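thread from #wetlab-drylab

HS: before we spend reagent money on co-crystallization trials with beta-D-galactopyranose, can we at least see a predicted complex? here's what I'd submit
DV: go for it
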Amino acid sequence: MLVLTPPMGWNSWNTFGENINEKVVMDSADTLVSTGLAAAGYNYIVIDDCWSLRERGEDGRIVPDPVKFPHGMKYVADYVHSKGLKFGMYSCAGMLTCAGYPASFDHEFIDAATFAEWGVDYLKYDYCFHPSTVPGPVLYKRMAVALANCGRDIVFSACSWGSDETKKWIKQTGANLWRTTGDINDSWRSIKELSLIAGDAITYGSINCYPDMDMLVTGMKGVGNVGFAGCTDAEYRLHYSLWALLGSPLMIGCDIRQMDDFTRETLLNLEVIAINQDPDYNQAYDASAYGVTFQDAEKNEHPIYVRQLSNGDLAIGFFNLSDQPTSRWNSYLALDRIGLPESTGKTLEMKELWTGETFKVTNGIFGETIAPHSCRLFRAKVVNA
Ligand code: GAL
């Protein structure tokens, strides 16, 4: 199936882990709607690992845990659909899921049929416990062909953590998104690590096959399944800005029933979402001097990502992943690097999307002093100098 922009929604794993149940999922569906998140584009509710019994039923099908989901999955799917949302579930290409529940290896067609009967719209497909005899690309093709023949449109979300060079073969499988890295957790260390390696995978992304930088930890505040140390507000904003600008799917991982105002404002910035969902889906590139000059982009703690948008504007993000403030000499953008040399007679009118501040760039260059672990995210219009 064709997915025109990166999927957005909420996934149970980051906060709830194995402690999921019907009530959490249905309450979260209600909350997506009542907070305006659904209207802003977050329309998938995805149940991650740990939703089933430990054994398949006698008919060979996976059985939802009757304690966690007493009315079964179709009931939950119907409820999610009644809210105008889409319903996602989780399985794995191996014999077992990562948490040790039955997975879909050698059961691809029966599982795809079961998901279709329940009304599933999105399947996250993990990579634990897979047999060494069948190569990864084939495992993902097996489920892709089953989904394509299950009689229902189901978004296929591959989750092989970027391993075995996933980026090079994932498009052959028909997956609509692929996880580019190992798991995120709610700490600055994790955000920084994933941010430094993001630039590589995004160059393989395109419409209908999006680089999934993992679910958001924004707003978790150290609470829940991957709730490690927690992050500062500035760090959460940098994380969200980078994921949005680089075109990652935006899957919320916090408990949205408990969001504070800062989290709500962060997740509901419609101008930032518009960049993520830009219909052209052009790739972002690092226009910092380091990104342009050096090969080992993974060492660049001050990337300046730029993305051409469909109406002619540019999205520009200055990121400071280091522990020191940036100065104008290590974080500046020369407009000739992005296609606007002086000879064009053009410059940029900037709008910072978190503060609303506006200004015009003069002299073909501008630098930003950015606090440690912070960012500035702009939408820029091309205007006469
Ligand atoms: C991991 C995956 C996580 C989560 C977890 C569930 O492999 O990367 O996002 O799905 O499994 O056990």
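DV: The first strand starts at residue 8 and ends at 11.
HS: ok that's useful, forwarding to the group
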